[in-house]
Amino acid sequence: MKTNRRTFVTGVSAAAVFSGSKVAFAQKKYDDGATDKEIKIGNTNPYSGPASAYGVIGKTIEAYWKSVNEAGGINGRMVNFITLDDGYSPPKTVEVVRQLVEQEKVLCVFQTLGTPTNTAIHKYMNQKKVPQLFVATGASKWGNPKEFPWTMGFQPDYHTEAVIYAKHMLANVKDAKIAVLMQNDDYGKDYYEGLRDGLGKDVGRIVKQVSYETTDPTVDSQIIQLKDSGANTFFNIAIPKFAAQAIRKAADIGWKPAHYLNNVSSSVASTIKPAGFENSQGILTAQYLMDPTDKQWDDNADMKMWRAWMAKSNPLANLTDASNVYAHAVSFLMHETLKKCGDNLTRENVMKQAANHQKLRVPLLLPGITVSTSPTDFYPVQAVQLSRFKGETWDLFGDVLHAESS
Amino acid sequence: MPAFPKKWLLVVIALAVLVPLLHPLFPDTVSDYRLFLVSTMIIAAIAVLGLNLLTGFNGQISLGHGAFYAVGAYTAAVLMDHLDVPYWATVPAAAVVCFIVGYLFGLPALKLEGHYLALATFALALAVPQILKYKWLEGLTGGVQGIVLNKPEVPFGLPLSEDQWLYYYCLIVMLVLFWAANNMLNSRSGRAMMAIRDYKIAADTMGIDTALYKTVTFGISAAYTGIAGALSASAIAFVAPDSFNIFLSIKFLIGLVVGGVGSLVGSVVGGIFYVLVDNSAQAISLFVKNDLGLQFDLSAYTIFGILLIVLMYLMPMGIVGGAYLALRRLRRG
């Protein structure tokens, strides 16, 4: 927590210097959604529909702001967090986001969840010039300040992550022949493109690529095809349900490739356990958050703080669900951004401060990973650490890897 | 069911035209966002009308009208995105494409009656989102990413906001379509459609070409829903396969049954109902939890379901049918 306070002090003094240089030191400036007493933040989450499992993120974020308000708010202002259900349906997202912006008049939207849903409002937010901050999707298109200066992502983008796997494959797997299972949408394609870019001139090492639809019952036949290709390396680009099926099927038919699993499915509770611990030994993934099931964090100050917070402010939530760790971390970043805005709560300043974090230590990010943004860098978290599954949990190894995505 | 009195109809239309102009007087009540919501209601009403023509007036059940809605939306989107066709020209284009698709689908559907037809249309609704994602079509449809569009611009330099113009545009299209549907239903063809619904063998005996009428009705119905889809593409300014899941078809059916099967006014009420309830269900569920202090974590869909059950129990003939019966009872009493 020491680092936190220090970063906070640095942040505040930086903000002070900023506003100090502009004569108007204590002058308060507001856009819609901010007053002396309140800051209004909008959010959409799928509380119903096919992706409703993600709804816990919205609920945990809500609990976070509640606890912030109980502790006195941000610079004396209470956070009014309005979260609406969009059912993961893009037209519904457009409707509720318009409600948030035009009817509720929020200062910004935060953590709107989903790639298709955020795509549907991308243009609108930028036309209206309302910040669309730290969206809950890892597609690489959210970090494009030139064309979309009002939109910013949060997690390491899929492209960057795949580049890291590609480099690891080339360095560690002898004579790699790569087979790829991918979800047929832009999430899958982002990873796949990253893999190809990371392999560079060795792109020919990909011997087989098959895809699945989220409506498919299983990926069994895909896994059999991949095994038949004679590959010795497997890149598993699938969401938890299908990733677990893939791990299990590969073990059933005796295929033992070097297995790279995308971070999206790194949850022990929802992927590895259903796939079976005995089938998952040695699988590699990249992580940027502390896994709540990983015993090595039991004595870590961040993890202790998070557990205490969960017990006090979010008692009904699942302590082994990594989504709750994620929600806390991303809310902290929003919290810091708003703190730095001081009394200048204009939309422009919110974006400016969001793009002005220097090596900010966000609790629950892995040690050594910090958040840095700039007016030309809209990718807050850009580092991961590889880990290997061992026993009943992930075992981090090697250094924290930074990769600049194109 | 009796026709809506003409006098009242004119009053409603006059109100619909004039109210948005009150924006300068009541900027918060008549806001752009509310107008946008009303536009989505209008679009829903047109889609429900399309289904009503088929189910309510011709007796063919469809669980898959979301598919025609999707075809209409994608026709409009592809024309605007790839060929720079102006948005207003996409409506007739979508109508033609959907008529053809609906007509062709209606041909094999002739062999299927009742539940079997319902299942076939259900399959169609399930298939369309997958087809839109298909590799060979990706260049056209944009695959899973969908297509991002521009909102219709205000023409002739009219002093309207984008949403006001969108509203008038949808309103005009709706009035034309309802006028056309009303004329058709009150003609010889309309009576033939309803005769087939009521007693097919009798209609056959009277010399009505039932096969032709059924397929053409399927086409017209699909065209209406397709027009609604094209309008929605302009209104939302984005299309993606995920927008057209099976739920959409079910919603049209809910709108139809709740509004009133076999009633033009019912289609409007149905369209309004599903947009309104869809939006307020979450508000009600929050209200129950926060303001009434009940510790029920009711999901919005639970509320939606409870409302539907209550409504079906109280007004089995839909809102319009129920209101009509209530009126008649009042007069008699």
The gross shape of chain B turns out to be globular
The level 1 CATH classification of the largest domain in chain A is: Alpha Beta
**Whole-number count of domains of chain B:** 1
Strand content of chain B: under 5%
Instruction: Estimate percent helicity of chain B.
Output: over 70%
What is the 3D form of chain A? globular
Using the coordinates shown, work out and report the CATH topology of the largest domain in chain A. Rossmann fold
Helix content of chain A: 40-55%
Q: Considering the protein shown, what is the CATH homologous superfamily of the largest domain in chain A?
A: Response regulator
Stretches of chain A where pLDDT is under 50 for at least 5 consecutive residues are: 5-25
Structural category of chain A is: alpha/beta
Number of helices of chain B: 14
- The ordered string of helix (H) and strand (E) elements of chain B is HHHHHHEHHHHEHHHH
Name the beta content range of chain A: 15-25%
Mean pLDDT of chain B: 86
Whole-angstrom Rg of chain B? 20 Å
Major sheet characteristics of chain A: 4 strands, parallel
Task: Spell out the key features of this protein.
heterodimer, A: 406 residues, alpha/beta, Rossmann fold, 2 domains, four-stranded parallel β-sheet, 13 strands, B: 333 residues, mainly alpha, two-stranded antiparallel sheet
